[in-house]
Design brief:
129 residues
């Protein structure tokens, strides 16, 4: 029999025996036990999340102005969002830039040099009327 069931059974006996003060003490203990169980569940979830983030941290590498996962070459992810909040936010490709949908930071993409070259060529040709 678990602690909660034992307390519940004890409370029932005390209530039937008209031991109101002891009954209330048992009810208080049951309430505190439930609070502690809920807190333990929360801490377990937090621990799992932190372990996942630690695993991600070890798997990240910086390349082309973004974070990438080494294990599966997934990315790019926003460096600001990860560095500040440990949120792995995928960058959206808005050629020749990447843009973070969360913080709106822009990063030069891998095609930036060809884009610059194209602009330079257009500027050399002048306006086309």
């Amino acid at each position: 029999m678990g602690i909660y069931e034992t307390l519940k059974s004890t409370a029932s006996v005390l209530r039937e025996a008209d031991k109101i003060e002891q009954y209330r003490q048992i009810l208080d203990a049951m309430e505190k036990l439930l609070e502690l169980q809920n807190k333990l569940t929360e801490l377990g979830k937090e621990c799992k999340l932190l372990k996942e983030k630690l695993k991600i941290k070890d798997d990240l590498t910086v390349s082309n102005n973004g974070y990438w996962l080494k294990s599966n070459k997934d990315g790019p992810f926003c460096t600001r969002c990860w560095d500040k909040n440990k949120d792995l936010i995928r960058l959206k490709n808005e050629n020749p830039y990447y843009k973070c949908p969360e913080c709106a930071n822009s990063y030069e993409g891998p095609n930036i040099e060809s884009y610059r070259q194209e602009l330079a060529n257009l500027n050399r040709r002048g306006p086309s009327y």
